[in-house]
Amino acid sequence: MVGHLKYLLLFFATLLCVHSCKVDGKGKDQIVKVEPEFTIDLFEKLAGGKTLTFTIKSIDLQDCLNYGIDASSGHSTSFIRLVINDIVEPENCDPGPAFASTEVDVTPLPNGNYDFQVVLKDAIFSEGKLNVGPEKYQVDMNTTNGFYYVHKELMRIQDQQIWGYVGYEDKDQGKPYADQFLADLASICSDAELQNGYYGYFNVDGHELGLIPAPAFTNFQEFAFQLDVDTETLKDLLNQYRNSAAGDYLTISVNTWKGESL
């Protein structure tokens, strides 16, 4: 009798485990916690119209520089789905350690709230919301099984915003030219009035600008402005400095809300 009772207890415990670990293909009642295999970040491409992009990377380093990830997206009027299938091994390995990566673009979205689903390997479903607003994108997930977000909020670049840096190696010679260029640039611009946050191309923290990636110069000054003139006037100013003595000491990089690098 005792042995029979043990078998009954084992049977019911097994049923309970199977029920608790079930992964519902419709994403309902999923309580399994899967260890993260991927990271997801938000980015907005600017050239040719603003496009939300999911940047997906493996958490583990791969042994080739050119590993990819098979992923895709789809959406309807009020629903967006991001599907991550698997890491893709390259046909010809470019040796070296790197994270597998890919970018998945989403067709330009009208402002609004969307139901959002992340599907991992056609088996693990995570549900949430994606808010698309004029100033930012924001993701709010109920679960994050098999992945985690690098940023859940992406501030959006506004029309007429420009940003960049002035870099120089010789501080004594370069800094006076850099200061003068920034003063001339400010004269055709106004304050960008950036809120704190992650913008994809840079971060703003305590009203301090940090470009992504940071400029590769010993000395540099970063900037962000709201351009008050047309881009041709801006290009004229850049050419004036690049074709003068200042050009021997300065490297000037300017990016625009249209996705241009000037």
Walk me through what this model shows.
With 262 residues, this protein is of the alpha+beta class. It folds into 2 domains: 38-155, no CATH class; 161-256, no CATH class. It contains 3 helices and 17 strands. The strands form 4 sheets. It has a 6-stranded mixed β-sheet, with no helix packed on it. A 4-stranded mixed β-sheet has the order 5-2-1-9, with no helix packed on it. It has a 4-stranded antiparallel β-sheet with strand order 12-16-11-17, covered by helices on one side. Mean pLDDT is 89; it is low at 1-30.
Summarize this structure briefly:
With 262 residues, the chain is of the alpha+beta class. The protein has helices at residues 2-20, 171-186, 231-242; strands at residues 38-45, 51-64, 68-75, 79-88, 95-105, 112-120, 124-132, 136-141, 147-149, 153-155, 161-168, 189-191, 197-198, 202-205, 208-211, 219-227, 251-256.
Query: Quaternary state, please?
Result: single chain
Number of domains: 2
Total number of helices? 3
**What is the distance, rounded to the nearest whole angstrom, between the alpha carbons of the first and last residues?**
84 Å
Low-confidence stretches: 1-30
Strand content: 35-45%
Number of DSSP E strands? 17
Radius of gyration: 25 Å
The largest beta-sheet arranges its strands as 3-4-6-7-8-10
What integer is the average pLDDT?
89
Shape annotation: globular
SSE order = HEEEEEEEEEEEHEEEEEHE
Instruction: Please describe the biggest sheet, giving its number of strands, its sense, and whether it closes into a barrel.
Output: 6 strands, mixed
Structural class: alpha+beta
DSSP helix fraction: 10-25%
